[in-house]
């Protein structure tokens, strides 16, 4: 039985103040480094003995990684930006309210004050609440190393539980969210056992609306497969369709398509059967909210 | 109801430990640090059932750790519960075992100068196990040929062979059952279940033990009874009680988890005695969750009723999954019978309970002690009967409840008394107005995805376990009150406060009797060397039983100070009164209609200077009654028929606690009890993986979920009120509150769910997964 009070494994701890220092550390030969940002996941894993790194390299003191800027229609969030700050920034932009809702549902204040946006992504939990909204928004990541940088789409970055496409000497530098044009509404919903919990299932939607026509619809579901899934079927069913009633059979059909597309399992939080049954309902719920939001200021 | 006006009883006053707790200054056992102290850690079994073949401690000892194994601890077979008389105490464990019977059971222990080193030393210990088959289902455990957890245990001083893993059984019968059911126009029988809930107290169990140079020990444990801890340690380690001093340390919540002398205490004492140094041992959350849980229930309940709703007979059968040790199944079964019998009158009844051993975390008392489980079944079945009879559920309850002037045996068949205060009707009548009972509608008329329903649940708990004659359970308290030379007073008692304000109430009772403000009454630090025996702060007995002892001690001290004042004022002491000065709170002794007056402080100081002695009172007192504190819950839920999720949208919680000592704290207890009760109905349980014997939640709060304020109704939608009653046998008319607060809730939730969707769910917790399945079976469609 593990001792959740202490970490028994001995490790070194480095807190570089600049990216240059950070890359210097990551390039040292023979390193078994783990990056630590807010530490809300990795410290738990270390206490449980699931990770026993020889060295932890912290991003906490690197100011260059703590920023939110909007330029050329793209919101760039520095990797080490705290979730509290991300949630606050997204609350102000109507088209990405789903991201505000997803991020602010991660734990409670203590977690939001410590955890970071890139940390939530890089932990690569299938249940990460920031990921479905980011996927529907077409998010890319800027990865940097001592040798340069590259862009990678979020959907190509997360490979499986705890697995990402990050290189040994790379870090996530920024999370880049193309801000949607007018007429886009988004919404996020999460089903959980209690009010502060890891999702049984979470879902995000981003809808482009033109009058009563659904121009496009992007849906992502978390906690129902090894990674959060971008699901194309609802878009196929709804794109170009006149939505007379957001509770219509058409929407229900798109919801059924979501239920069929996910690949849930039984685990401690819920069952595969239940997740399938409610995926449809969650889709209908988020569709309705996002549809209203997409209507614009007149609504 | 008394018209007596109180000075401080019944008023909201500042909690004495409020500032210390809010600022972090309060000392809990995990804060106790002694010079040269070592840190203990316990190696926990990864297996649900195994014989320990060998333990190699050489690696740990090479690191400088002190180690203890089964071979080095006393072999006294003990039960951590000390509340029952020895003849009714089942004993089946030793300080460390030679056979582990559940995952998480302590195998051996180490102590080292730091916790980190202790943890490393644990990792270096090598244990060889011979694996034995595990049992996780109580019905499987009963079958012929099932593996045996114990060949025999001790009952009192006798060896008791164990057959079919049956820990104990109780059958209690009254009246002619066959005749009772024959008289019934309607017989209803249903099965019910509740989960294996974890106490979830904020502070995990912990202890510090200091071995003394004279061979004695001083102990700072988390416990609800310092005296029982002392007696059991004395017996296990063969130390005279005069050399075992157990301190009262503030406890960070209990819910029954420390009624016993918890097992880490004995392990810590053994470590400290071997090390010859103080040792601190504080459980991690995982260890704590594997240490104890609530008794889960499987209940088959049957009532016979006449057409006009009078109960003619009742029968309750229960199978209790005790887990790996029989801590208190025997008294539990007696109480379950008592809870069953004392809710509604039955001319004929039968109770049959069986406790069975399994390879799971041992169950122990938890808030309600079988009462929320039994009352969930009874209150659900009352609604089922009402529906079948076409009768209002409240009317059915009014017709049958056990109330004023009737015999009641809530704590089991040996503890009978007559009810002298009863607010049942008042709570039902007022509560139904507050919740809007008449507008609740019928489930078949409700439409839409979200459906609301209102349910009622009654309940009660006994205030302690007192009775006119000695019974199977020990119950008495001791207190000392002395008046200081400035007019303030000290009260000394071994009672505990679990956070609900018990010791504040004791100070109020003393202040009220002495005619001084509660702020001038100090609650003395307490240990077993300087206090008289108090059985345990459990069974909702703190105020009613402990308070009664404190009141008697205060009465003696009052008499003494009045005699001193009478001498000084040259009047007859019986003619004198005391009232607190509204400004200073100091007691003013006066003769009505005259200017003869003296303050309590002046009298006490003069007595000191003249050598007349201290005004002091000591009382060791057993209550001859354990009156029911009744509760009533009205709960409104909203069911999402598309997802099966249930939300509690409104609630009215009422208690008949007699005179309420501190209204805000009592309201807080009702709200807290309601929260746990709702979670018993909807959320909490621990599942076991039969392959590994581990809890699927792994013993952490990541996956063991509890409700918080977030799942409770909004502040304006949660109403609390107190019945206007006065218990003649209680201190200033008071009864208990604590456990009663959650007894009525689960039944009220089940009844509300039925009222919302027309579906009756008898197996708690009603998870969304379970509810959605039932909705689909009933033809609901998302």
TrEMBL record, chain A:
One of its GO terms (molecular function) is oxidoreductase activity. Gene3D superfamilies: 3.30.465.10, CO dehydrogenase flavoprotein, C-terminal domain, Uridine Diphospho-n-acetylenolpyruvylglucosamine Reductase, domain 2. It comes from the Bacteria. SMART domains: CO_deh_flav_C. InterPro entries: CO_DH_flav_C, CO_DH_flav_C_dom_sf, Diverse_Substr_Oxidored, FAD-bd_PCMH, FAD-bd_PCMH-like_sf, FAD-bd_PCMH_sub1, FAD-bd_PCMH_sub2, Mopterin_DH_FAD-bd. Residues 6-182 form the FAD-binding PCMH-type domain. Keywords: FAD, Flavoprotein. This is Carbon-monoxide dehydrogenase medium subunit. It comes from Desulforhopalus singaporensis.
TrEMBL record, chain B:
It comes from the Bacteria. This is Xanthine dehydrogenase molybdenum-binding subunit. It comes from Desulforhopalus singaporensis. GO terms for molecular function: iron ion binding; oxidoreductase activity. Residues 23-133 form the Aldehyde oxidase/xanthine dehydrogenase a/b hammerhead domain.
